[in-house]
Amino acid sequence: LRSEKQSLLRFLALYTTLVVALIVVLSILYYKSRYDLMLSDARAELSKYAYIQTKRLKVLHHFFPEERTYPRDPRFNSAIYDIEKKRIFSLLKDNDVRFDEEIYLTHSGKFIHFVKTLDEFYLGTRYLIIETNADAAWQAQLFRRIALYGGIAFVLLMLFGLLLARLFLKPMRDSIMLLDRFIKDTTHELNTPLAAILANIETMDTDVMVEKNRKKLNRIMIAAKTVSVLYKDLTYLTLEQEKENRNEAVDLQEIIKNRSEYFRTLAESKRLECKMDTEQVYIYADRRKIVRMIDNLISNAIKYNVRGGTVSVSLREGRLEISDTGVGIPHEKVPFIFDRYLRFNKSEGGFGIGLSIVKQIADEFDIRIEVDSKVGRGTRFVLYFKPYKGKEHAS
After folding, report:
1. pTM of the entire predicted model
2. Residue 329 CA to chain centroid, in angstroms?
3. Which of 29, 76, 185, 244 is the most buried (most CB within 10 A)?
């Protein structure tokens, strides 16, 4: 059902967001811990290099200006800055110098810098920067590990989420299955008394009745036909929808006229004005299912209309429109009107299965449905279908 899908999608969207956020946070913490560990391992070696370079600067300071060659080392690069953080001399390949950090990975990710603050200002030096090449494979290996562990965690957590979703939707599913079983059990019990009521009403001679009794009989007829439509929906839902289709060229105009006449008594009881504008159009489908679909649309237009309102039916090639001037449906609830057992007007009876049957039949015969509804102004159903041209060749 659409409501189940919506609930499942909302839950999975929220759950996925939380899972992704959790994995991202854990990945960042893991990356930071490995980053700090890498710098901690590098600090010991770079501190040794800084000590060696400081001794060389001390020697150069004492022999300056006779000796003016800046000490170099193949194992590292270095630079010296004064107390105002102005460069005195530099052999650095990456000038991304951060004096507020003792050791760090440069923004390029290619070098590690170690910043040592000197107590004695050799050659005016306050800051000594030691630079070594960063392990190029370190980050790539770390990212691969994060991707692997993160992917495994995501899959496991999503499987756990699906299990939670099934548990979350189980009460809804159990309720629907319980209602299905109830409908199947009770449908068989309705047929005999309903058929007897309708048969006896049709055989009664209204000409010999007084007006008061004719009105009572008319009300009985209306109630019986309302129950009959509900019974046919229940029968279709539980017994007939799985039957093999017997497709043929179906005259929609003839069906609409026939079903409108069937519901005429019900419409008259609410003093509805019925506007018919149809032309002869055929569709290749199962007549039984098309009748079921049109029955539900017309009966709903009558049932949810206001007293003295209007029901309009328009049939053109490839297009059937059924509209009313009734109570209407809130805009935010329109996407859910085809869900089984959902009812948006509690004042009228029924199980909320009529429109779900309409949608099911429409999908089966590639009929597209558009719904336009405004609260207090009515509802309009427009069905778009492929008209059948060769009715004489129908089998």
Report:
1. 0.49
2. 22
3. 76
